[in-house]
Design brief:
- By secondary structure, this protein is α+β, with helices and mostly antiparallel strands.
- Among the domains are: 126 residues, no CATH class; 58 residues, no CATH class.
- It is built from 16 helices and nine strands.
- The strands form three sheets. A five-stranded mixed beta sheet has the order 2-1-3-4-5.
- Strand 6 and strand 7 form a beta hairpin.
- The longest helix has 33 residues.
- 3% of the residues are buried.
Length: 412
């Protein structure tokens, strides 16, 4: 480059674009070639040169501005130029008329943008003196503000496109930005809440985005570790967040009305009860406890059991067979001393806590029956006998010093 007769190649042009922070355009073989700045761009304007004879570059001083319908006005000096640009050497003899042509272009733009009824007012604001034009303060301010706004919008959009393209194409830059965003999301609470709100809003309003997120979530859920992690988070949130718990219950009840979903959940529950021993024992314990403590549930189960027993012949036969089998097994096992001891220890495990209403003795649970006062009120004679023979003098009655829940509550 420092020698006479040598010219710039693509390497030097690209280096110049990176160094100056602008895009450089070269006109060759009837088309423009762009050398984009790979670092930070300082302006959305560019440098324009024309490749002459394949061994020389001339500066292009006039081009049409991007995304506009006007240029600097130099191209109107000579109408014979058809290349869409002017070179510096071609404009030496036209410097006297450049200024007036540029002002005429701006004047035409300003006047044509206004309504017809304001043209007279605009004409009065423009003064002509010896072929030189000057604008009023009103037009200068309006033109300046319009150009600033247009330049700001175009520059902002251009920078956004450049940043997005650079983010997509540069893998290292993309990973660095992701790490920065994650670190900021973890450390900055306000930023975290803002991102969450934006994400929730976009998920609700943007249908295509919602479907895309669902598909990605399903694909990611196939990973076993991620699946277990999400399950644990869901269970913890269900236990700790009361409003979330009630919301899920309501949604589950609504969804359970669907017949296909209902049958599917029943099959899953039955399969889990058969295959998972721990789950089976847990359900049994919960059902026994609920049957013992919840009187409404107990009565409902009794009614259902009786109704099913009398209405379904197959169920009735199955229950009888199970009862007979159980009795036979107990009868056989009663011949074994260890089984007898085991049954005895089970019976005397709790107590004696139960008070007999007739003899006032403390007995074990299997030695007493619950006294039903309503049964003795069926006739006057039975009521008189019950009043004389049955007493609740030693029956336990909860007081303020009782432990909650009271362990003797069942004996009352």
């Amino acid at each position: 480059m420092h020698l006479v007769g040598s010219w710039a190649t693509e390497v030097e042009i690209q280096a110049a674009a990176d160094c100056l922070g602008v895009n450089i355009f070269t006109f060759f073989n009837g088309r423009w070639l762009q050398y984009s700045c790979r670092d930070r761009t300082f302006s959305n304007q560019g440098l324009y040169v024309a490749n002459t004879n394949g061994n020389h570059y001339e500066t292009v001083v006039c081009v049409q501005q991007p995304q506009t319908h006007m240029c600097y006005g130099y191209c109107k000096v000579k109408s014979s130029f058809s290349d869409g640009y002017n070179l510096r050497w071609k404009n030496d003899d036209a410097s006297a008329t450049i200024h007036s042509l540029k002002l005429n272009t701006l004047l035409e733009t300003e006047v044509t943008c206004r309504p017809a009824k304001e043209e007279a007012h605009v004409s009065e604001n423009i003064c002509c003196s010896k072929g030189k034009y000057s604008f009023s303060k009103y037009l200068k301010t309006q033109r300046t503000s319009t150009y600033k706004l247009k330049y700001h919008v175009l520059y902002k959009e251009n920078q956004k496109v450049v940043r997005n393209r650079f983010y997509r194409e540069n893998v290292l830059h993309r990973e660095i930005k992701k790490a920065q965003i994650k670190r900021k999301y973890r450390s900055n609470i306000l930023y975290k809440e803002k991102v969450k709100e934006l994400s929730i809003t976009k998920y609700k309003e943007n249908v295509s985005h919602k479907e895309k997120v669902k598909e990605l979530s399903k694909i990611k859920y196939e990973d076993v570790l991620h699946k277990e992690k999400k399950k644990d988070e869901s269970k913890r949130k269900y236990r700790e967040n009361a409003s979330h718990k009630e919301k899920l219950k309501a949604l589950s009840k609504i969804k359970y009305e669907d017949v296909s979903h209902k049958e599917k959940k029943k099959d899953e529950s039955k399969r889990k009860y058969r295959e998972n021993a721990a789950h089976k024992e847990k359900l049994k314990a919960l059902n026994k406890r609920k049957y013992r403590l919840n009187q409404l549930h107990k009565n409902a189960k009794k009614v259902m059991s009786k109704s099913k027993y009398h209405s379904t012949a197959e169920h009735k036969k199955q229950v009888k067979e199970l009862v007979n089998l159980k009795r036979h097994q107990i009868k056989v096992k009663m011949q074994e001393f260890d089984f007898v001891i085991e049954k005895f220890l089970d019976k005397v495990e709790e107590g004696p806590h139960y008070v007999c209403g007739c003899c006032n003795r403390l007995l074990f649970k299997h030695q007493v029956l619950k006294c039903k006062w309503d049964y003795y009120k069926k006739s006057r004679l039975l009521a008189e006998i019950a009043e004389k023979c049955i007493s609740d003098e030693y029956l336990h009655k909860c007081k303020e010093d009782c432990i909650v829940p009271c362990p003797l509550l069942e004996t009352a």
